[in-house]
Amino acid sequence: MCPPVEETPVNGANGHQNGTNGTSRNHDDFTAIQSSHNPHPHHKSPYQPVGDFLSNVSRFKIIESTLREGEQFANAYFDLDAKIKIAKALDDFGVDYIELTSPAASEQSRRDCEAICKLGLKAKILTHVRCNMEDARIAVETGVDGLDVVIGTSSYLREYSHGKDMTYIKNTAIEVIEFVKSKGKEIRFSSEDSFRSDLVDLLSIYSAVDKIGVNRVGIADTVGCASPRQVYDLVRTLRGVVSCDIETHFHNDTGCSIANAYCALEAGATHIDTSVLGIGERNGITPLGGLMARMLVADRHYVLSKYNLKKLKDIEDLVADYVEVNIPFNNYITGFCAFTHKAGIHAKAILNNPSTYEIINPADFGMSRYVHFASRLTGWNAIKSRADQLGLHMTDAQYKACTAKIKALADVRKIAIDDTDSIIRAFHFNLHNDEERPLLEGLTVEEQKKFLAAERELNGEKEKRRLDATADAEAEVPVSKKTRTEAVA
Ligand SMILES: CC(=O)SCCNC(=O)CCNC(=O)[C@H](O)C(C)(C)COP(=O)(O)OP(=O)(O)OC[C@H]1O[C@@H](n2cnc3c(N)ncnc32)[C@H](O)[C@@H]1OP(=O)(O)O
Ligand SMILES: O=C(O)CCC(=O)C(=O)O
After folding, report:
1. Is 237 helix (H, G, I), strand (E, B) or coil?
2. How many CB atoms lie within 10 A of CB 484?
3. Strands (E) located in 13-82
4. How far apart are alpha carbons 94 and 74 in whole angstroms?
5. If we measure between CA atoms, which residue out of 332, 423, 337 comes closest to residue 372?
6. Of all helices (H) and strands (E), which one includes residue 245?
7. Tens digits of per-residue pLDDT, 424-454?
């Protein structure tokens, strides 16, 4: 059963209030009767993390990599001004770390790194470098709090990227780590392409760097091949081998980046890499917003106490603007329909209690829900709610008749909110006046014909059903054999 969302007195984007047909109501009680099948469990979320002593679902940290992994997104170009704005926005949001592009990448990258370190942000600043002394030397001079050092350990990368064997990797890693530690910086060592690396190689190198006092080791699903279960197994195994923190980085090639991050935390990982909107190489990594949605459902208290969720939309808009993309319609939390409820069955229940079809309270993110009513899937409860908003009151039978008209028109063509409002207004007017207004102005002759036909069909259908029911009752036909009207003349 879904955890209930918090009570939201906020109106939806269309002005809908959450309550019985628009009347704001306290949802301390469910609408159904309490029973052993429906115990109304308000105080305990069934999505609370499973009781695993290794799990860090309630105490994870975010390493925000929009300014590193995100800069690797095909369309990204961040000048210093953009980087500062993004870094400040992420800091306001409350991320624990901000990871920057390697200062070895270019002279401007180095200058940008220095400038961001001087901003005095609350978040720790990291830079991401190759596992070699030249990069490490440049990085420690920039003023960063720490270095994220990486080197590929899979046979693909050992053969085709850097060409080094595991002995070389281990020796260089130790040299780099000791150097960085001697400079008083935080240090993380990560094996790129971990999930296509040999497990014995991985555990051996992680164990070696843990012994010399690395702050974190990193597991990276560089090609997005890992499944949640594989992630759980690897992180859990690693948890038994190292005592340092475990950072994880998940690409999204097969759509598992959020699930993998969650499983990593369940298995004992401590840090998750994210980027705003998930931007990064190819189709990117775990998105900050999507991870927040996932974690809010798992531990609302922890997430709300740490992260300023209401800033999410602004950060996403900022980054989307810089990288010149539109936020997808189905984006977690901020997609235009993330909290839109359309079908009549959903609309009715949502109006009564948002927990029926929402596990996330949009207000936690400064968003609002929207109850759609301008379609043929609408129902009379949604129309009644809309009429209430328009200040038009009718009997339930009248709302139902009005809804039938709206549905008939929606069968003719796609209708807009305005069309629906016009029909409600005209229908209401006609109830109280001798003069008969057309339900909708501006229909083409063709549409008018179709609308009339749809209405006739509707009336005929109703009449047929009434006659069928009467005939069935009179003949006392068993339910299974009752007459069904095939078509309406
Ligand atoms: C999975 C990831 O996202 S890892 C992070 C990726 N980030 C970046 O690549 C940062 C941006 N990169 C750059 O600006 C450039 O690639 C630089 C400055 C790092 C290197 O540029 P170049 O010296 O011209 O080398 P190039 O990019 O062609 O090839 C990569 C070099 O790094 C070496 N290399 C690759 N990975 C690593 C590693 N993890 N540790 C050490 N060396 C590495 C390769 O052997 C290769 O060196 P070589 O051609 O001298 O043998
Ligand atoms: O440093 C890491 O752990 C991750 C590097 C990276 O971007 C990747 O492997 O995809």
Report:
1. helix
2. 9
3. 19-20, 23-24, 61-64
4. 27
5. 337
6. strand 245-250
7. 999 999 999 999 999 988 889 998 888 888 8
Ligand with the closest atom to the CA of 138: 1
Number of domains in the chain: 2
Distance between Cα 218 and ligand 2 center (Å): 8
Cα 320 to Cα 355: distance, rounded to the nearest angstrom: 31
Q: Report pLDDT digits (tens) over 278-322.
A: 999 999 999 999 999 999 999 999 999 999 999 999 999 999 999
State whether the beta carbon of 150 lies less than 6 angstroms from ligand 2.
yes
Q: Quick check: 263 pLDDT over 90?
A: yes
Give the list of residues 6+ apart from residue 200 with CB closer than 8 angstroms, or none: none
Amino acid in the structure at residue 87: A
Q: Which residue has the tokens 């028109």?
A: 409
Q: Which helix (H) or strand (E) holds 221?
A: strand 216-221
Q: Please state the rounded mean pLDDT for residues 268-277.
A: 98
Neighbours of 310 (CB within 10 A): 13
The answer to the question of residue 95 being in a domain is: yes
Burial of residue 4 (number of CB atoms within 10 Å: 0-12, 13-18, 19+):
buried
207 with 310, same domain: the answer is yes
State the virtual CA torsion across 192, 107, 274, 321 in degrees, nearest 10: -140
CA 85-127-125 angle, to 5 degrees, is: 55
* Helix spans in 151-227 (H): 155-160, 166-182, 199-211
Beta-bridge mates of residue 187: 147
Residue 274 and residue 136 in one domain = yes
Residue whose Cα lies nearest atom 18 of ligand 1: it is 105
Instruction: Judge if the beta carbon of residue 222 lies within 6 A of ligand 1.
Output: yes
**In Å, how far from its chain's centre is CA 199?**
32
| Cα 374 to Cα 335, 341, 385, distances in angstroms | 20, 11, 12
> Are 1 and 36 within 8 A, CB to CB?
no
- Distance (angstroms) between ligand 1 centre and the Cα of 130 equals 7
Are residues 314 and 405 both part of a single domain?
Answer: no
Mean pLDDT of 19-35: 34
Where does a domain end: 302, 323, 344?
A: 323
Q: Which ligand has the shortest distance to the CA of 99? A: 2
